[in-house]
Design goal:
Elements (H helix, E strand, L loop, with lengths): L5 E6 L7 E5 L8 E5 L10 H16 L2 E6 L5 H4 L1 H4 L1 H4 L3 E8 L7 H25 L5 H11 L10 H9 L6 E4 L4 E2 L7 E7 L4 H4 L18 H11 L21 H5 L9 H10 L14 H22 L3 E6 L5 E4 L5 H7 L3 E2 L8 E2 H6 L1 E5 L11 H5 L7 E4 L3 H6 L8 H10 L4 E3 L19 E7 L18 E6 L1
Parallel strand pairs: 3-4, 4-5, 5-6, 10-13, 13-14, 14-15
Antiparallel strand pairs: 1-2, 1-17, 2-3, 7-8, 8-9, 9-10, 11-12, 16-17
Helix pairs in contact: 5-6, 5-9, 5-12, 6-12, 9-12
Length: 484
């Protein structure tokens, strides 16, 4: 009997995504390999070393050839490895590279998104520098820096450079995939790949959260311009009448740049007021007056903009559903898609051959037996409606996350306890979180089997010689599931 199972190796290197899938091949004697993302968040301790260990393991397991590499979206914790481990990837041959339509340089909508992401990143980078010099904005500075960790590396590397490094690995071309299409797995056998997201609807791309649709008992779009222009005005690089967000015409009031430089010729009476009520650190009563400064308000908006940039980028995630044809079971790779993307899947319809039953997004979700948990278990990256309609009798779930690191950078509900609790319930214990203590050799590996698993879960600990000590570093940690 031909083995049509799929092996799913999920790496456990902290807050970062990297999943390696072995699919049945049309060619005897070889496997078909698909790599989905390879990255680690800037805040992760020893992140560059960890992602290089992961990449070295990928290269060894695949024999130095990967048929398809998927870059789900433009975030550092998904793509950093293509820069941080470039020397390892240079020795690996890659067939195709897949992105979503949102990364297509010739797509008009994608180009607008690209411009927005670039402008927002630069505005936030400027805000981050100013926040560092503002004692009263410590919490804002910490929150903004943590979110910028999805966009920049620790040394200032841009995630866009990592994306382009991945693009350059393709030897057989780059595909930019659209929802509602079937992606060709050339060389694979018995598996179909359906593209669920991201949606083309701009409204859905903007829906990052609907509390009633997640496990928990929106806001209007923000513009990059107010923060960027506020910083420019404060630095004397922009006239007020150039700023569409300014509350008054440029002819009203005193010129900010001249006041900050001590030039009072246009309004000599402004000098004592400006210095006693604005520019000096203390007011006439000896009290700090940072709270008066309008640029503090601009800087405070940086967290909101950073959250929007993070959410909008997550919603551009390439979402794939792999169907094992013989069993009809589905592997759902949701990347970091948030609520707007999840909502769109219910209406996605796929072309089918004559005589076949139509495939829909709702149908694929209902047959899901493996779920890569969205955005490291955050609350608004798993929609309750879809999770409740998956195949609970067979479901296996994996969440790549590091709760200790999330706590360190003051992220709340990351991973979300209620989401993790529900995943544990509906999988009958077949839920694994990447920061589990046993993955570091502290405690016994749990028995994860049954459902759609053809064999019990394996882990990197299974590969250690009997009686050997568990290494603290120098080994890629992973768990592996064989799904039928």
């Amino acid at each position: 009997m031909v083995d049509t199972s799929v092996d799913i190796r999920c790496y456990c290197h902290g807050l970062g995504d990297c999943i390696l899938l072995r699919l049945p091949s049309e060619v005897d004697g070889r496997d078909f390999w698909m790599l989905v993302d390879c990255g680690v968040h800037t805040s992760q301790k020893e992140g560059p070393r960890l992602v290089r260990e992961v990449t070295a393991d990928v290269a060894e397991v695949t024999g130095g050839h990967i048929d398809v590499v998927v870059g789900t979206h433009e975030h550092w914790d998904h793509l950093s490895g293509f820069l941080q481990a470039a020397e390892i990837f240079a020795k690996v041959t890659v067939g195709e590279v897949w992105f979503s339509w949102a990364e297509d340089p010739v797509d008009p909508d994608a180009r607008r998104l690209d411009r927005y992401k670039a402008d927002a990143a630069m505005a936030l980078a400027g805000a981050s520098l100013s926040l560092a010099d503002s004692p009263g904005m410590k919490d804002v500075a910490v929150g903004t820096a943590a979110l910028l960790g999805f966009v920049f590396g620790a040394k200032g590397e841009k995630v866009r450079d990592a994306r382009e490094a991945l693009r350059g690995l393709a030897s057989r071309g780059v595909r930019h995939l659209q929802p509602g299409t079937v992606a060709p797995l050339k060389g694979a056998s018995g598996v179909r790949c359906y593209v669920l997201g991201p949606p083309r609807d701009e409204r859905l791309l903007g829906i990052e959260d609907v509390v009633s649709e997640t496990y928990a008992f929106g806001g209007s779009p923000l513009s990059v311009a107010p923060l960027a222009n506020g910083l420019a005005v404060n630095g004397g690089a922009l006239r007020v009448d150039d700023d569409p967000a300014a509350p008054f015409d440029g002819s009203v009031g005193a010129d900010w740049s001249r006041l900050s430089a001590g030039e009072w010729s246009t309004d000599p009476d402004s000098a004592p007021f400006a210095w006693s009520r604005y520019f000096s650190p203390l007011d006439d009563d000896g009290l700090e007056q940072d709270w008066r400064r309008v640029d503090q308000d601009w800087l405070a908006s940086s967290v909101d903009l950073a959250l929007q940039l993070d959410g909008r980028t997550n919603n551009t995630s390439l979402v794939l559903a792999l169907e094992i044809v013989d069993s009809g079971n589905v592997i759902l790779l949701a990347a970091d898609a948030q609520i707007g993307s999840w909502q769109s899947w219910q209406s996605v319809v796929f072309p089918t051959s004559s005589g076949e039953t139509a495939r829909t997004g709702a149908d694929l979700v209902a047959r899901t037996v493996f779920y890569k948990v969205g955005h490291h278990g955050s609350r608004n990256a798993t929609r309750s409606f879809e999770l409740e309609h998956m195949d609970h009798a067979n479901l296996v779930a994996f969440s790549p996350t590091d709760a200790a690191m999330a706590k360190k950078v003051k992220w709340k509900d990351f991973p979300a306890p209620k989401t993790a609790e529900r995943l544990e319930e509906i999988t009958s214990g077949r839920f694994v979180q990447g920061d589990a203590e046993w993955l570091r050799g502290k405690g016994q590996m749990p028995a994860v089997d049954g459902g759609a698993l053809l064999a019990p879960m394996r882990s990197w600990l299974s590969e250690l010689p009997e009686g050997s000590e568990v290494p603290e570093e120098g080994a890629a940690r992973w768990v592996e599931f064989k799904v039928r």
